[in-house]
Amino acid sequence: MIPKALVAASIKPFVLTILSEGDSYGYAIIQRVKTLTRERIKWTTSTLYPVLHGLENKGLLESYWQSSEGGPRRKYYRITAKGRNAMQTEKQQWLDVHEALMQLWSPAPGLLPN
Amino acid sequence: MFDLEKTIAAWRQQYQHRDTISIDDLAELEQHLRDEISDLVSTGLSKQAAFLRAAKEMGDFDSAEIEYGKVFWSKAKREQRLSDAFSSRLSMLRSHFRIAIRSMVKQKVYAIINILGLAAGLACFILIFLFVQFEFSYDTFYEDVDDIYRVTKRNPGDVYLGTDHFALTQPPLASTLKRELQEIESATSFAYLESLIITTEATFWEKGLQADPSFFHVFGLPLAQGDTATALSNPFSIILTQSLAIKLFGNQDPLGQVLTLDENNQYQVTGVISDPPSNSTIQYTFISSILSDEYYQQQIANTRWNSNYMYTFLHLREDAHIASVEFKMPALVDKYLYPEQPDLQASDKEAFYFQAFQDVHLNSTANFDLGRHGSRTQVFMFIAIGIIILLLACINYINLAIARSLKRSQEVGLRKTIGAVKSQLFRQFIGESLIITITGMILALGIAYLCLPVFADVVMRDISFSNLFSGTFLLGLCALAIVTAGISGFYPASLMASLNPIDALKKSISNVQRRFNFQHVLVVTQFTASIVLITCGYIIYHQLDFVRNKEMGYNRSQIVNVNIHDNNQELKEHISRIKSSIQENAEILAVSASHSLPSNITMQQTILGWQGADEDDRLYLHVNAVDYNFLSLYEIDILSGRSFSTGFPSDAQTACIINQTTARLLGWSPDEAIGQSFMHDDVLRTVIGVTKDFHLHSVHHAIKPLLLFIDDGGRFDYLSIKVAPGSLPQSLDSIEEIVQEASTFPFEYAFLDEQFNQLYASEENLGNTLGFFTIIAFLIASLGLFGLAAFSAEQRNKEIGVRKILGASPSRIAWMLSREFSVLVLCAALIATPIAYIASHKWLQTFAYRVELTPLVFLTTALVALLIAQLAVGYQAFRAAWTNPIHVLRD
Fold first, then answer.
1. First to last CA, chain B
2. How many CB atoms lie within 10 A of CB B203?
3. Are residues B151 and B188 in contact, defined by beta-carbon separation less than 8 angstroms?
4. Whether the predicted pLDDT of B72 surpasses 70
5. What is the pLDDT of residue B61?
6. B520: Cβ–Cβ under 8 A, 6 or more apart, which residues?
7. CA–CA gap between residue B318 and residue B321 (Å, rounded)
8. What is the Cβ-side half-sphere exposure of residue A103, based on CA atoms within 13 angstroms?
9. At B580, which helix (H) or strand (E)?
10. pLDDT score of B513 more than 60
11. CB contact under 8 A, B68 and A49
């Protein structure tokens, strides 16, 4: 199980990145993250929706109501230009941390076990 | 049985009416729930189980509400901020206002200095604006003023008062232009006519016009009563202005009334016109038909082009251009003026010029021009002075605000620490300058209102304050206040707003030196402007003084001049009898009649045929028709020969007296000139005397050649009477009695001294106006210096205390404080001197005789400026020097 703090920290890059692939709605985003993490991250509604609304307030997202192919009306979110910038920043930060950790975790070439 | 819809409705109810969850949010959550349920159902769960699991996964209400709440409040705050922006700005404005008033009350001297300075500057600006507006408004009230042109002409060789350009043209000009040029819609000519108007009730001396019937076609003026098409068509018709109509006939209908002009002609009133406004170049109280004038009729009938006495105006067709008229003019001149001299050089021919009517007031160089003229140079000079004085006042504000910023830096620091941002502080300080400016503006309006009558008198314009209360002017005033507040407030405001709060609270004065240098530059600017003004003003007074005390070559004291009107035949016929009856009075020292007064000789004629002259040689000179007493009454010196005398009968016919300049131009010494002869006005004249040169006009002009001859009375315009000192009132009474016995014309007289001063009236006005503005400029600059010195003394009070304890004397300390300001004023004097020199040198060029510009003049004004600065600084310096050091060091 991934600890709460890490889950909370990863919401923003997840949401921005998923929306950068195309407009989507809350339920689909949760499902997508669930699949990607092999069910190790399962957001509740009270986790995701306030974040979506918060990002919308900050102008990183826009929302609109739409029904897909005769289905029920859902509230879709779309990433803005400002949101894409924020996503790049997030990405860089995660990669920096990731790269640093990887250097520590990869054993020096001469010490590789046979 | 489980009903999914009912269950979802119940679920929904739990979330409803929560403050933080909107309907939109709830709809989103509901759809989420439904998606989850349908997914779970598709994996095989029952609807009921699916609902329970989905609802559980969505989390409990409380945590959801907290999370939603976080977002909600930030959203709410933002909306609140937007809706409150207006009212918060309003309350900010109130607070700025309150702070500004408080700071003004706390620093009364500072506020008073600023308000007074700005009020004085703005008052000057308003007065100058009114004057400038008035000058530019001349003749703009005619409907088609853009199509109205005035004709002037050049008379080659006829140079009078420095120019051969004249405003007077020939009577046939107007009708000829109209007939020959299709560009011209109508043309009119008119002349001034001063007339004695006699009704059964009373007699009035009025100044009017004689105009031809096209007058109204050209100017498009409406009549209050009567028909413009016919009012001047017949001889002996007259149009009265409304005020004259009331003066003559009271409440009676003036139309059709008959009145007598100049005793012998009966005129019928055919119209009433409203009085010409004061910004009209053409002024009159009546317009009579020029067809009543026989001389005009002859000139027109014979198309004679030899008499110039009329003003000609034309109205261009709307689609025509004046250039095409100008192009066709030379051919017309050849056709009408020089039909038998086709080979004459263009420079020897008369030439006509067309000037837009609107330009006449400010651009007139022609002799004998209409109306009372303005000067474009003077208008622009006034504008410059107005701006300079306003800038002086703004500089005061800037300087004092910078000085005070040292004291206020703590206030700024504190404000910044508790969260004021730069733009807020900037607005606050700009707001302060706006409040001070508006207060100053209100005061300025009051000052301008009180000063306007005096100012209007000095600039000789009928300016009224009512012009102020037009919409555009009030708008202009607002703009002026904002611009003034902006100029004076911008630098101090940005300076204070950008203070670093820590430095400010620490009372750091690291920037003081730099700021002080900027203040020095501003003070030098102020004093430079003031010194330039005072120097120019002083030089104008100096020159006027020089003019008044210059030996004119004749004595102008105790001389009364009685006007003899052209048509006053009775007086002219009986002139010798009148002269001798005046002479009988014991208080009368001498009596003389002449055409011109020695202060302004107006007649010019030519002489020819002197010994040694070629056939074509002509000398164009000033002439004056005089009597036997002229030279002795005016105490004009005779260099050689003798004065006119009744003992020589030929004196009345063929004698003449010339001045030194004439003799010199003809190549004679004063002694050689005696007995020479030449032709003048078809008379062979013999020179019997040569006078010492005296000034024939104002000293703007060099002394010209002159010829004096005896006349029997027909040409006399003035009766000059020299009165014994101290007996003027009785003498005047008896003179009036004698003159009025022989004349029905009103008794008009003037003192030669005053007429002489009249020659320099415009210079005197310039001097007075400049003097007035100089005083204001110095007042403002000194106020600023006074305030600055106060701050400087206050800032250095600890230093002064220590110095005193160490034994510095008060006078030494006073000197220390005033020294730096003296240096500034001296710098200003150095910069001002070349500027003032160039300006006054240019002005003095308009005089043929002028004062020398000596270094002493500039030294004197620099000293005066220094003295004024010392007075402003001195009080502060001495106060600081005499303060007990214990008081300042104890703090």
1. 91
2. 13
3. no
4. no
5. 60
6. B824
7. 8
8. 5
9. helix B575-583
10. no
11. yes
Closest to B409 (Cα-Cα) out of B519, B516, B509: B509
DSSP designation for B287: E
Say how far residue B515 (Cα) sits from the centre of its chain.
Answer: 37
Indicate whether B709 pLDDT > 90. yes
Retrieve residue B843's tokens: 């002005």
Average pLDDT over residues B623-642: 92
| Interchain proximity B68–A27, CB inside 8 Å | no
Q: Is A72 in Cβ contact with B70 (below 8 Å)?
A: no
Indicate if the alpha-carbon torsion angle A11, A15, A18, A21 is positive or negative: negative
CATH, domain range A4-106: 1.10.10.10
Assess A64–B contact: CB distance below 8 Å, yes or no.
Answer: no
pLDDT at position B244 is 92
Identify the DSSP state of A69.
Answer: T
Q: What ranges do the domains of chain B cover?
A: 1-102, 107-138+374-510, 145-360, 559-754
Task: With beta carbons less than 8 A apart as the criterion, state whether B183 and B320 touch.
Answer: yes
In the sheet with A73-79, reading across from the earlier edge strand, the strands are A24-25, A73-79, A61-67
Least Cα separation, residue A73 to chain B (angstroms): 8
22-41 in A: which are within 8 Å (CB) of B?
25-27, 31
| CA-to-CA separations, B26 to B11, B15, B39, B320, B765, in angstroms, rounded | 10, 7, 20, 80, 86
> Distance between CA B489 and CA A32 in Å, rounded?
61
How far apart, in whole angstroms, are the C-alpha atoms of residue B364 and residue B161? Answer: 14
Pairing of strands B655-659, B203-211: unpaired
**Mean of the pLDDT values across residues B666-693?**
91
Name the 3-class secondary structure at B670: helix
How many angstroms separate the CA atoms of A68 and A92, rounded?
34
